[in-house]
């Protein structure tokens, strides 16, 4: 007779505990990674908004600068018109002013377009790099 009975209930209980611990490791790892990913995403969005705000300020400043230049050119044109003595002078001054204004507006449009493109790229860069990092981690 065997007087030393094996406690069989301990072995299955330990197995269940081991399985439970292993089962909780994955969710812990997931939440740890999710927290880090959320922090990175928040930093990317904050950088994105900062760049966008800075770009809007720069764009608004350029618009104000251009408005001031155009107003000044218009006032100079009006002063020239006030001193004209003949219809021929009027057509010469008007034609010259229109050419200058067209050149000025074309150049201003090019500058604003370049500025908007640069700001768009700078604004999108944090999101683009954040997505690239997320894809690297997922792979």
Characterization of the model:
- This protein has helices spanning 10-82, 87-138.
- By secondary structure, the chain is an all-alpha fold.
- It contains two helices and no strands.
- It has one domain (10-138).
Rg, Å, rounded:
35 Å
Summing up helix and strand content along with how strands pair, one would put the structural category as mainly alpha
Query: How much helical structure, as a percent, in the residues?
Result: over 70%
The tally of helices reads: 2
The total of beta strands comes to 0
**Largest sheet features:** none
Shape: rod-shaped
Q: Which whole number gives the mean pLDDT?
A: 84
Number of domains as seen in the coordinates: 1
Distance between the ends: 60 Å
Provide a compact summary of the structure:
By secondary structure, the protein is mainly alpha-helical. The chain contains two helices and no strands. It is rod-shaped, with a radius of gyration of 35 Å.
């Amino acid at each position: 007779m065997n007087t030393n009975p094996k406690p069989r209930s301990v072995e299955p209980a330990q197995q269940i505990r081991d399985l439970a611990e292993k089962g909780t490791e994955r969710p812990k790892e997931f939440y740890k990674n999710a927290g880090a990913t959320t922090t990175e995403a928040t930093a990317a969005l904050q950088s994105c908004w900062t760049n966008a705000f800075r770009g809007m300020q720069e764009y608004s400043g350029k618009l104000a600068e251009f408005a001031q230049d155009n107003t000044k050119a218009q006032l100079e044109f009006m002063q020239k018109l006030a001193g004209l003595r003949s219809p021929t002078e009027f057509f010469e001054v008007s034609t010259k002013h229109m050419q200058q204004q067209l050149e000025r507006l074309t150049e201003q449009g090019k500058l604003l377009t370049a500025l908007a493109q640069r700001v768009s790229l700078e604004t999108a860069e944090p999101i683009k790099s954040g997505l690239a990092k997320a894809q690297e981690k997922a792979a």
